[in-house]
Design brief:
By secondary structure, this protein is mainly β. It contains no helices and 21 strands. The strands form four sheets. Strands 1, 2, 4, 5, 7, 8, 10, 12, 14, 16 and 19 form an eleven-stranded parallel β-sheet that branches. A five-stranded parallel β-sheet has the order 3-6-9-11-13, with no helix packed on it. A three-stranded parallel β-sheet has the order 15-18-21, with no helix packed on it.
Length: about 210
């Protein structure tokens, strides 16, 4: 069977690989797919095939990786990435991006919906985003989650040099700048919606952000 459709309820798996030729569809608001256990941050969603999200929730206690020749279509719903458990053995490995899209994907289409990264990566060599493709004008990127104090060893926090060139709405909601929980923007970025830095959160500009609605 090379196609799986989720319609309602909650499914829990330890990790997920979508093989070449395989398809995973998440279509219903009432559905949540969870990867990994709540005390873990090293689960991996590894996509060689097609991941389509039109609604519902994908919650990853770890990271998401899109391989070359894979397909990603997101027109609604939410992806939450929760990969920093402070302890290296329980977090995403150092050097790995939390949301990583390889060059040479067949399709990267993030037209709508929300990507939320709860904490900056723990490792000094990791980045929150490694994506050479633009996000859609109606997409939303949320960095941080109120109440978490999980720190990062990367001085760029949520930022770095591997961000997309363009995203939709930007919300920084880390609650504090302590422990490198800020966004350090190191390359020119266009925001095609609004940009919001919420109370206690931090944004450091080392390259321009252009908000162009």
């Amino acid at each position: 069977m090379n196609r799986v459709n989720f319609f309602a309820g909650t499914a829990n798996v330890s990790a997920l690989r979508i093989s070449a030729g395989g398809t995973l569809n998440n279509n219903t608001a009432a559905h949540t797919l969870r990867l990994g256990q709540p005390d873990e941050g090293f689960a991996l969603l590894d996509n060689y095939g097609t991941l389509t999200i039109a609604n519902g929730n994908l919650y990853v206690n770890g990271r998401v990786r899109f391989q070359a020749a894979s397909v990603f279509n997101m027109s609604g719903g939410k992806i939450t990435i929760d990969a920093n458990r402070v302890i290296p053995q329980m977090s995403a490995p150092d050097g790995a991006a939390l949301f990583e899209a390889a060059a040479g994907m067949n399709t990267f289409n993030f037209s709508n919906g929300t990507l939320q990264i709860n904490d900056p990566p723990l490792g000094a060599l990791s980045q929150a985003l490694s994506c050479p493709y633009d996000f859609g004008n109606n997409s939303t990127l949320v960095l941080g989650i109120p109440g978490s104090l999980n720190s990062s060893k990367n001085p760029d926090g949520f930022g770095g040099l591997l961000f997309p060139n363009k995203i939709g709405k930007l919300i920084i909601d880390a609650g504090t700048r302590n422990g490198n929980r800020q966004l350090v923007n190191k390359k020119a970025l266009t925001v095609k919606g609004s940009a919001e830095v919420r109370t206690g959160s931090g944004l450091l500009l080392q390259a321009p952000i252009t908000v162009n609605q």
